[in-house]
Write a structure and sequence with these properties.
By secondary structure, the chain is α+β, with helices and mostly antiparallel strands. The chain has two domains: 78 residues, no CATH class; 110 residues, no CATH class. The chain contains three helices and nine strands; from the N terminus they run βββααβββββαβ. Strands 4, 5, 6, 7, 8 and 9 form a six-stranded antiparallel sheet that branches. β2 and β3 form a beta hairpin. Keywords: Membrane, Transmembrane, Transmembrane helix.
């Protein structure tokens, strides 16, 4: 099948001499204004030009005009706009692209909304934990989330990178003693047990240390509850104080 591709001209409008402000010497002439378009299967894709054809009313033959009239026609041509239908093919071709762009914009908006909701959720959680730490009481339950990193070293012992491990358990402790500047916590609840390292069953931490462990970056909670830091140096465990709750009588005690 041959592809019909090329150009054709369409008459836009016919003017009389009075429409163009000419004198009666040109009253027997018709001034035809054409638009030329590039087409695909005769569907206009884009306009490619404009031109005039002047014919005699009686003979229907084309007339050659003097430079003065030609200037008037050229000015009229410059002021005219291409009709909207001369772009219809380009619009049809661009529809899939516009559709994909629209989908991309929607995805970006949805992603931004989700990220904003996530940030708000994290901020609200941090505020609640900070408030809970300010009003800490005996028997309050503290939940610590972990973030395990395997330390990859070269043959000389230099650290190459740190890889996140898949298994990252959560540990729960209860407040057993409170002093002016420290809090003693004890692990009494059944929860996930570490399989590569050991953690303290009972630990005293300063309020400043606990405050630093609230950060969502985990940076201040490095190995805070680990007992075997000196024995296991091929990975590190970051602890985050994730939640503070009042006593729950349904929890089982070890």
């Amino acid at each position: 099948m041959r592809v019909r591709l090329g150009r054709y001209s369409i008459k836009r409008k016919t003017y009389s001499y009075t429409d163009l402000g000419l004198n009666e010497a040109y009253k027997n002439m018709l001034f035809k204004f054409y638009v030329q378009v590039f087409h695909l299967w005769y569907i206009p894709i884009l306009p490619v030009g404009k031109f005039w054809v002047v014919v005699d009313r009686d003979t229907k033959k084309e007339v050659v005009l003097n430079p003065e009239v030609r200037t008037i026609l050229n000015l009229k041509e410059l002021k005219s706009r291409y009709p909207f239908w001369s772009y219809i093919g380009a619009f049809i071709i661009s529809l899939p692209v516009l559709f994909l762009i629209g989908l991309l914009v929607l995805q970006i908006i949805n992603y931004s909304d989700k990220q904003l909701d996530k940030q708000l959720t994290v901020s609200n959680r941090i505020e609640q934990v900070e408030e809970g730490l300010e009003n800490i009481e005996l028997d309050d339950e503290l939940s610590f989330k972990t973030f395990e990193l395997k330390i990859i070293k070269d043959k000389y012992g230099a650290v190459l990178r740190k890889e996140k491990q898949y298994y990252t358990p959560t540990y729960k402790y209860v407040v057993t003693m409170i002093t002016n500047d420290s809090i003693q916590i004890e692990r009494k609840f059944r929860s996930s047990r570490p399989y590569r390292y050991t953690i303290y069953k009972k630990k005293t931490l300063s309020k400043q240390q606990l405050q630093g462990m609230i950060s969502k970056t985990f940076a201040s909670g490095q190995n805070q509850l680990r007992k075997d830091v000196e024995n296991e140096k091929d990975f590190m465990v970051l602890f985050s104080l994730y939640e503070i709750n009042k006593p729950n009588t349904d929890n089982s005690i070890n």
